[in-house]
């Protein structure tokens, strides 16, 4: 954590920040009152909000069902950067791109039948996340796309079709592959419209699109069939398909949409390649973190959020550096 606090001194050197350097320097003698203040709005889905117990504790009471946790990357960065950046975090589990752009969302909390029931469900709707962005916003980060793609529903289908298969074949791919191009096209269209809306609301803000980490390993022999602390009953063939034809293309669509709409892309995929659900040092939990009572449904844990915090912090500091 202290390594990011030391980076604040970089604000005193326009040349260093412009070059993107992140070398820690001593803050001795620096005046806290001299530090600039920037307004940052964090938007996104559950990969931003945190949601699962392995990403910390829900810190907002009464609960609104969005399940923002205290070890999610926006909150980690908020603690690391102190008074430099004022954070407004309106990320929300299960949010689609449309929920961020224009549509009020009814959060689901931790209500994911048949895996878990949330005693407080249903929750009242929350406003479209874009409403938190104003003309005074300096930086906007947004991590979304997976729910518009329908990744959670795809996982459920893959679990169902793989059940009883003995781990053989690609029953999920056989059923869903034909729908993937249309799903990706919708992500592309919606993502561009979202970025345009954010630019309209904050004409001078820096927009940072945060991609998704590695979830499925390149070597799916690491994944044990019917191991529900990994991918449960999803076959290895379907895991390869999810990685190659669903998740990697999703990141590419987000990166391209970002480039087309004057937003910077923050890549989390490469840095997390050896920390998938099936790796011993996992940064993303499987269907369950702990059987039988701690559902994770394939979300980053605190280590995954720390990795995201590292990369988003670098992008934030570069975004607010003097030109």
Description:
It contains eleven helices and seven strands. It has helices at about 1-5, 15-20, 45-50, 75-80, 95-100, 145-150, 150-160, 170-175, 180-200, 235-260, 300-320; strands spanning about 40-45, 85-90, 140-145, 205-210, 265, 290, 295. Strand 6 and strand 7 (about 295) form a beta hairpin. Helix 4 (about 75-80) crosses helix 11 (about 300-320). The longest helix is centred in the last third of the chain and has 25 residues, at about 235-260.
Q: SSE layout and pairings?
A:
Blueprint: H1 2-7, H2 14-18, E1 38-44, H3 46-49, H4 73-81, E2 85-89, H5 97-101, E3 139-143, H6 146-149, H7 151-162, H8 171-176, H9 180-201, E4 206-210, H10 236-260, E5 264-266, E6 288-290, E7 294-295, H11 302-319
Parallel strand pairs: 1-2, 1-3, 3-4, 4-5
Antiparallel strand pairs: 6-7
Helix pairs in contact: 4-11, 9-10
Number of strands: 7
CATH superfamily: SGNH hydrolase
* Major beta sheet summary: 5 strands, parallel
What structural category arises from helix and sheet content? Answer: alpha/beta
CATH topology: Rossmann fold
The general outline is: globular
- Beta-strand fraction estimate: 5-15%
Tally of distinct domains? 1
The number of helical segments is 11
CATH class: Alpha Beta
Low-confidence stretches: 1-36
Say what oligomer this is. single chain
Give average pLDDT, whole number. Answer: 90
How would you spell out the order of helices and strands?
HHEHHEHEHHHHEHEEEH
| Strands side by side in the biggest sheet | 2-1-3-4-5
Span from first to last CA? 27 Å
Over all CA atoms, what is the radius of gyration? 20 Å
Give the helix level as a range of percent.
Answer: 25-40%
Reported CATH architecture: 3-Layer(aba) Sandwich
């Amino acid at each position: 954590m202290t390594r990011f606090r030391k980076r604040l001194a970089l604000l005193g050197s326009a040349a260093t920040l412009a070059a993107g350097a992140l070398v820690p320097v001593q803050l001795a003698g620096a005046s806290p009152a001299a530090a600039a203040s920037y307004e940052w709005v964090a938007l996104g889905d559950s990969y931003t909000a945190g949601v699962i117990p392995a990403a910390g504790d829900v810190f907002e009471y009464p609960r609104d069902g969005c399940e923002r946790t205290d070890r999610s990357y926006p909150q980690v960065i908020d603690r690391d950067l102190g008074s430099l950046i004022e954070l407004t975090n309106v990320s929300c589990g299960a949010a689609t791109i449309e929920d961020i752009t224009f549509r009020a969302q009814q959060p689901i909390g931790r209500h994911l039948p048949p895996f878990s029931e949330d005693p407080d469900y249903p929750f009242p709707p929350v406003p479209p996340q874009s409403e938190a962005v104003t003309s005074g916003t300096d930086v906007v980060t947004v991590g979304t796309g997976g729910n518009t793609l329908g990744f959670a529903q795809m996982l459920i289908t893959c679990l169902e079709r793989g059940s009883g298969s003995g781990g053989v074949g690609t029953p999920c791919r056989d059923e869903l592959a034909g729908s993937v191009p249309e799903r990706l096209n919708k992500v592309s269209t919606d993502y561009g419209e979202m970025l345009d809306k954010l630019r309209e609301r904050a004409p001078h803000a820096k927009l940072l699109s945060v991609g998704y980490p590695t979830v499925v390993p390149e070597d799916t022999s690491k994944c044990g069939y019917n191991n529900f602390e990994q991918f449960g009953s999803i076959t290895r063939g379907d895991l390869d398909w999810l990685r190659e034809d669903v998740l990697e293309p999703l990141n590419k669509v987000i990166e391209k949409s970002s480039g087309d709409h004057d937003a910077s892309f923050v890549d989390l995929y490469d840095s997390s390649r050896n920390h998938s659900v099936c790796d011993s040092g996992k940064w993303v939990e499987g269907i369950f973190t702990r059987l039988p009572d701690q559902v994770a449904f394939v979300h980053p844990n605190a280590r995954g959020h720390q990795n995201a915090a590292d990369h988003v912090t670098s992008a934030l500091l570069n975004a607010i550096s003097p030109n």
